[in-house]
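Researcher: Following up on the earlier apo prediction. This time include the ligand. It's guanosine-5'-triphosphate, with the SMILES given after the sequence.
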Amino acid sequence: MGDEPRNGEFQSDHRGAFGEYGGESGGLIDRSFRERIVLVGVTMPDGSTDETEASLDELSLLVDTAGADEVGRVVQRRQAPDPATYVGKGKAQEIKDVSLAVDSDTVVFDDELSPAQQTNLEKILGRSALDRTAVILDIFAQNASSSEGKAQVELAQLKYRLPRLRSTGRSYSQQGGGIGTRGPGETQLEVDRRRLVRRVHKLEDDLRRLRKTRTTQAKARKRTSNRGVSLVGYTNAGKSTVLNRLTDAGVLAEDRLFATLDATTRRLQLPGGEMVFMTDTVGFVRKLPTELVEAFKSTLDVVIDADLLLHVVDASAPDPQANIDVVRRTLREIGAIDVPELLVFNKSDQAPNVDAWVARFPGSVAMSAMDGTGTENLLAAMGDRLRSMSALVELLIPFERGDVMAMVHREGQVLTEMATDDGLVVRARLDADSTGRLRQWIVGQSDGDQTHDEVTS
Ligand SMILES: Nc1nc2c(ncn2[C@@H]2O[C@H](COP(=O)(O)OP(=O)(O)OP(=O)(O)O)[C@@H](O)[C@H]2O)c(=O)[nH]1
Ligand SMILES: [Mg+2]
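Model: Understood. Below is the ligand-bound prediction.
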């Protein structure tokens, strides 16, 4: 690109959240050995100590996934975060003492630190201070494989780093510079910043273009009037395994957080004959960074546009209810909370109390995507839910209007066809859009979830 003479430098290899640009701190997590990490959580008045512990347990898993070990934990109760140091000054000193005692290299805070807080903490602690966002970005960077996924992650990383460039003095060029070295020309820091901003714009452009393609594909799919079903759920719940079980998707499923970053869509035929498009997407955790949610907008759009969400829950997790809450909170944040949801309690093979969970959530199903138990049940439940969302209509179509007949076949599910003197009488299930388009041929209608006999005319 002409306006990007040093473009290649920014093709980050996604090794560490701070390492790509040659910053002096090396990678976020040095993967030549397992870094030793102290975790810090703060309970604010609107939270509970249990929630803080649960969130730290999750952070510990995230840190482990990023390639490091938790070796200590410090918690504090506060009315509000300290603007300068997040925790209180005394607590910061205590964290330093703990870090020395357990010989830890890095401290990870469970909430996003402001650039100033990060700088101040690093001064007090004498070691790197990171936050949950940096760890999640680091894992995403390690797992991104498609060009869109990589661009999305890089954009999120740059947006996270840009405001931190000045205050941390982490210039990627390592040629000195930074505040205080301002000479007659540009400081290195300004050069760095300008380059990164250009890179951000380029990535945004690229992603916009990819998004357009995706929207066109989605529209093409909509025209077929096949329903869209999206797999959502806490990370590692088994979403990809469910997709693989139901289709021949062959997507990567591993015992690892955020194994899936790209959306994969497959066609699937339900027992009633309906075709649906099923999409596997990125999993959720607590406090998903806003930079990521924004960057992954095109991936998450699939979730918002779905007709039905299969919310996959790991029934063998320590606290499935907490995970359900996390997912629903995230769905609210991305604007998908109104999409109908079918709860799937997965991993029934290792969850002895799965029936209790199903009983607690009427309409939910249990399954083991691993061994296939409950697959038929899930397919039937999906069919039922989708059918209950469509109306049962009766149409009268003149014989010469083969085009209209074809449209009904394409857009809905035809139940019966009968030739009469006036034309073809057709009973079919149609969603709201198709019902609108075929309005002039409709002679009777009833709401979903009813039997043929209840069609009135
Ligand atoms: N025992 C058991 N393990 C399962 C089942 N379903 C999935 N798993 C395992 O759980 C782990 C995660 O499965 P995935 O399908 O990758 O989970 P995911 O929800 O797609 O995870 P991310 O994409 O990382 O968010 C893998 O090791 C699977 O083999 C199941 O029904 N029973
Ligand atoms: Mg997955």
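Model: The pocket of magnesium ion (ligand 2) is lined by residues 239-240, 253, 259-260, 280 (CB under 6 Å).
Researcher: Noted. I'll compare it with the apo version next.
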